[in-house]
Design a protein that fits this description.
Length: 315
């Protein structure tokens, strides 16, 4: 069997998740310095597909692929440096790899470059350059790029604020299938016709993300839920700002969300708000206000409020 045929067979096995069968073929070709085989070996080693996770082997394999000018291998070297996978975390090196992979024709690397310019990761922050890259990507109907352009116009980052241009680009992103754009429209109170998600579904997604390795992604779902009057969304936002999950801890914001939830008549939220007044969390301490909200929680049938009220008053 010719090399190309063996590689095609290995990739087919990889694509249908038969990693145990794909691995021997990929290893053989990788030993012969086949760049695509090294890329796939790196992916398997990085994620533990058909083998134990081996970050060092992953980075080594991506490097071998990159040395043979494989754009995917070059891109993954950038990912490894950005996240400290099998090598030192180094945003500058990550950016350099992304730049090279972009020149080799990798759209994913172009996106990473734009993000780096937006945030100043490994390169001087330059929102104008970021926007220029996104515009280039959007020519090929890149949904994420179109969304970022829309957001830039909405917030005036790297370009003059323009609601008209923002909505135009966000609509393009939506037509390209962008969930980010769909969420943005929902956040500002303009639910798109294609958005069939209920408020409860949005909050459930937010809750799962808040408890994941990417809690920052939960915020927009929870904010949408709170805008649409979901008490659980308020409660989870209190937790996020109290504990610094996906955001910097902010006791004032946590208090504000607790107040909104309490005003909706939820006993547990009333109790939480009373405790914040009692301890001075995000607000000046006030036993009077604490007692008021413990009483309200008690009336709402939240049993722990009775003991808390007694403890506060001393009787």
């Amino acid at each position: 069997m010719e090399k190309d045929e063996r590689l095609s067979e290995a990739i087919k096995l990889f694509d249908v998740r038969q990693y145990d069968k794909a691995l021997p073929l990929i290893r053989k070709l990788a030993k012969k310095n086949d760049p695509e085989a090294n890329y796939y070996l790196g992916m398997m080693a990085m994620s533990g597909l058909g083998m134990k996770k081996d970050p060092s082997l992953a980075y080594e394999s991506f490097q071998k692929a990159a040395m043979e000018l494989d754009k995917n291998g070059t891109y993954m070297c950038g990912v490894c440096h950005a996240n400290g996978i099998g090598t030192t975390k180094n945003d500058q090196k990550a950016f350099e790899y992304y730049q090279t992979a972009s020149e080799q024709g990798s759209p994913a690397a172009k996106t990473k470059m734009a993000q780096a310019y937006e945030l100043g990761l490994g390169v001087a922050k330059n929102e104008v350059k970021a926007l220029k890259i996104y515009v280039e990507l959007a020519k090929n109907e890149d949904a994420y790029a179109a969304f970022r352009i829309g957001l830039a116009y909405l917030e005036g980052r790297g370009v003059q604020k323009s609601a008209e241009n923002a909505f135009s680009w966000l609509n393009k992103a939506l037509s390209y299938g962008s969930i980010d754009a769909m969420n943005q429209f929902r956040l500002i109170g303009t639910k798109s016709k294609t958005d069939a998600r209920t408020t409860s579904m949005m909050v459930k997604i937010g809750e799962e993300l808040l408890n994941s390795d990417h809690p920052q992604d939960a915020l927009i779902y929870l904010e949408i839920g709170s805008n649409e009057g979901n008490i659980l969304a308020y409660t989870l936002l209190v937790k996020a700002y109290d504990e610094g999950l996906g955001v910097l801890p902010d006791s004032k914001k946590a208090f504000d969300y607790a107040l909104k939830a309490a005003n909706m008549g939820d006993g547990a939220s009333m109790f939480k708000l009373a405790y914040k007044y009692e301890c001075g969390q995000g607000v000046d301490s006030s036993f009077v206000s604490a007692a008021k909200w413990y009483e309200e929680a008690q009336k709402a049938g939240y049993e722990p409020a009775t003991e808390a009220l007694s403890s506060l008053r001393g009787y």
